[in-house]
Amino acid sequence: MSDTVFAPATPFGGALAIIRISGDDAKAVLDGCFSRNVAHGSILHGSIVRDGVLLDDCMAAFFKAPHSYTGEDMAELYIHGSYAVARSIFDYLCELGARPAQAGEFTKRAFINGKLDLSEAEAVMDVINSKTALGAREALLQLKGAVNDEIRGIEDELTDALAGLDAAMDYPDELEEDVFSSLPEKLSDCYKRLIELERRGLGRRLIRDGARVTIVGKPNAGKSSLLNALCGEDRAIVTSIAGTTRDALTEHIDIFGIPVLLTDTAGLRETGDEVERIGVSRAKEAVRNADLLLVAIDASVPWSDECDALIEECGETPKLIVLCKGDLDVKIYESAAKNATGIEAVTVSAITKEGMDELRTAIADMLLPDKSETHITNMRHIEAVAQAAQYLYGSWRLTDWDCLATDIERALEALSRITGRQVDAEVIDRIFERFCVGK
Q1: Edge-to-edge strands, sheet with 211-217
Q2: CA gap 26, 200 in Å, rounded
């Protein structure tokens, strides 16, 4: 990648904007457009003048290869955020021999130049796309190599096992008994670690993609009031008339750093009203698609067969019973609800807000029970880990050493697609095409 490229690293239209330049001729392009000579690691105030016309009064910085984000010579111009100013400078940079960068080209160059491995490079985009502070923290941990460290640890174990296996097969007369005797435990341990990474990754993916939490219940159970209380504002119409909610109402909220798409649904009941019947049908669809159901039950009315039928209608989707209207004369207590169903229950009042913090904590605990630090949030990585685990499954029971060596090699190949040790150019291009221009 010998071309020198440029792109905006920030949006235009504000007070300031940044233009990033990278490539073999980055210093020459900077010297050609900026009024002062900028040394490595320095930032200076100056101007950009083209054919005697002042384009902008700005600042510039320069970073000598390999001490830059891309690993190449790299410069940055800190200009005023006007679109007109930016366009004129873009034209000037093209005249000086630079070309506009493609999407993700700066991070792709950082990967090719060894500044980032593939998992760290993809984490850059996850940081940019983070919906919550927790999502950003998870992506930053990956950017700092937390995922890569764990994957490389498993790779090292498998590489050692493969090396010992190959040596034993090539030199059987010098075979040491512990080469084979230690294999079952080592391979079983690697398999368990991969399965655990996959399990945590699938759960932690909710941080990046968001969780679908659906409020379900009978009419007038307090579903809409519950949605309003969780949102912190009146989003759903609340009346004492059963069947007020006719359609699914969705809101995006943040539950302790987990992005949640919260859905209020029509009350589940048989009805002759055509509009309400459509709403009930959509409610049932929302139940099927949910990651977690908040089963709203009116705590001021004794437990009945209808409550049991409602729980059964929710199927196998994870559930949390929410005993609404806790400010009234309570007839159902949390312990009784849990004893009847085996499902955790929380009592709340949308009026007094009592129990709402406990509800938010319970939702977060159910969506994200594992609080350990190393998680895979990228679906491509999760699939690679799952494939590696599949190759290792039962490998510790194999007695055909050639087949065993092949399975270990395939597992290593799958893991290398995470770190970038072995990945084809088409996959790399596809990954970086998702990036924004300027990153």
Answers
A1: 249-255, 258-264, 211-217, 292-298, 319-324, 345-347
A2: 43
Which pLDDT belongs to residue 44? 97
Say how far apart CA 425 and CA 331 lie, in whole Å: 64
Phi, psi of 144 (to 5 degrees): -80, 0
Question: Hey, what are 434's tokens?
Answer: 């998702």
Cis status, amide bond into 66, omega within 30 of 0? yes
Short-list 81, 18, 93, 118, CA closest to 432: 118
Residue found under tokens 């039928």 = 309
Q: Which amino acid type is present at position 351?
A: I
SS3 (DSSP) at 80: strand
What is the C-alpha separation between 433 and 426, in angstroms, rounded?
11
Tokens 């999760």 locate to 382
Q: Do residues 99 and 93 lie in contact, with contact meaning Cβ atoms separated by under 8 Å?
A: no
Q: What is the pTM (predicted TM-score) of this model? A: 0.53
Which tokens is 382 given?
């999760």
The type of residue at 250 is T
Separation between Cα atoms, residue 171 and residue 49, nearest integer Å: 72
For 394, the 3-state DSSP assignment is coil
**What CA–CA distance (Å, rounded) separates 131 from 204?**
14
Tokens of 356: 């709402």
* Residue pLDDT, tens place only, 52-62: 999 999 999 99
Query: What tokens appear for 298 in the block?
Result: 């009116």
In this structure, what token pair is assigned to residue 11? 């949006």
What pLDDT score does 222 carry?
Answer: 87
User: Strands, DSSP E only, in 209-312?
Assistant: 211-217, 249-255, 258-264, 292-298
C-alpha to C-alpha distance for 408 and 158, rounded to whole angstroms: 7
| Residues contacting 292, CB < 8 A, separation 6+ | 211, 212, 213, 214, 317, 318, 319, 320, 363, 366, 367
Name residue, tokens 């079983």: 188
